[in-house]
Amino acid sequence: MDLILTPSSPLLGKRVAEELGIRISSVTFKRFPDGELYARVESSESAHVVVCSLNSSEDFVLLNLLFDAIKGDVIAVIPYLGYARQDREFLKGEAVSVRVVAKAIEDRAEKVITVNIHSEKAKESFKKLVNVDAMPLIGENYRGKDLVMISPDKGSAERVKVAARFANCEWDWLEKRRIDEKTVEISPKSIDVEGKRVLIVDDIISTGGTVIEATKKLYELGAKSVECACVHAVLADFAPVKLFSSGIKDLVATDTVERIFSKISVSKILAEEIKEI
């Protein structure tokens, strides 16, 4: 078995190959003058692991080109599974993006491995999916630190609960209470954050709007400092600038999306899942 690196996940792919003790295939990628992509796999192995986060539509096209180039079995490792947030038809006539992506991938891959897929609903679109949880890694990264973990909303509370268990710290979520037609109060459900170091934990930080809103409120409630940690650092639309400008002291993420903030690697837990196949 060989491993194929892709432009979206080169460092994570290398780390997974090292964990597995397998060879990295020789691959050629090109872009033609008209923008079309090209892929060539120069390995003759009968089985391959492809590590490719779907950070963009181009990554999805490139992954499918690799599927066509590989002649044997494929394990598709997609650390960040883009398009998973469109997991249902919100408006009549919408394409359910994750369903389209799932079909295209599972038509060729023997097994699909991802990290913290956006929702259980998105997971239902797959038949061969292994969804790995990186929240224990985030928790372990903060073990022994004197802090409180906060979920920006109730929807992410279960994820934060897992991280807090591994960090051995207190946790809570921000709850919205409508006071009147024009006023909504946001505060932790039960924990007093005054004078405390607070860590906002979420699965994805995209534009950062939710985290910024939470940060402002936590400072208003007397938090000593506010940091954030996430699995997938999408960080679109100048999000890091906005986050730090809002008073965030630090940003830590895993390497499912490779950023300068990717200080926690999911390579080991991905390798463990591949070994089980």
Descriptive labels:
277 residues, alpha/beta, Rossmann fold, 2 domains, seven-stranded mixed beta sheet, six-stranded parallel beta sheet, 9 helices, 31% helix, 30% strand
Please outline the helices and strands.
Layout lengths: L1 E4 L4 H11 L2 E2 L2 E5 L5 E5 L5 E5 L5 H13 L3 E6 L18 H10 L4 E5 L4 H4 L5 E4 L2 H7 L6 E4 L5 H11 L2 E9 L5 E5 L8 E9 L3 H12 L4 E9 L5 H7 L2 E7 L7 E3 L2 H10 L1
Parallel strand pairs: 1-2, 1-5, 5-6, 6-7, 7-8, 9-10, 9-12, 12-13, 13-14, 14-15
Antiparallel strand pairs: 3-4, 10-11
Helix pairs in contact: 1-9, 5-6
Report on this model:
- By secondary structure, the protein is α/β, with parallel strands linked by helices.
- It folds into two domains: 2-133 and 265-276, Rossmann fold; 135-255, Rossmann fold, CATH 3.40.50.2020.
- The protein has helices at residues 10-20, 57-69, 97-106, 120-123, 135-141, 157-167, 209-220, 239-245, 267-276, and strands spanning 2-5, 23-24, 27-31, 37-41, 47-51, 73-78, 111-115, 129-132, 148-151, 170-178, 184-188, 197-205, 225-233, 248-254, 262-264.
- A seven-stranded mixed β-sheet has the order 11-10-9-12-13-14-15. The protein has a six-stranded parallel β-sheet with strand order 2-1-5-6-7-8, sandwiched between helices. Strands 3-4 form a two-stranded antiparallel ribbon.
- The longest helix is centred in the first third of the chain and has 13 residues, at 57-69.
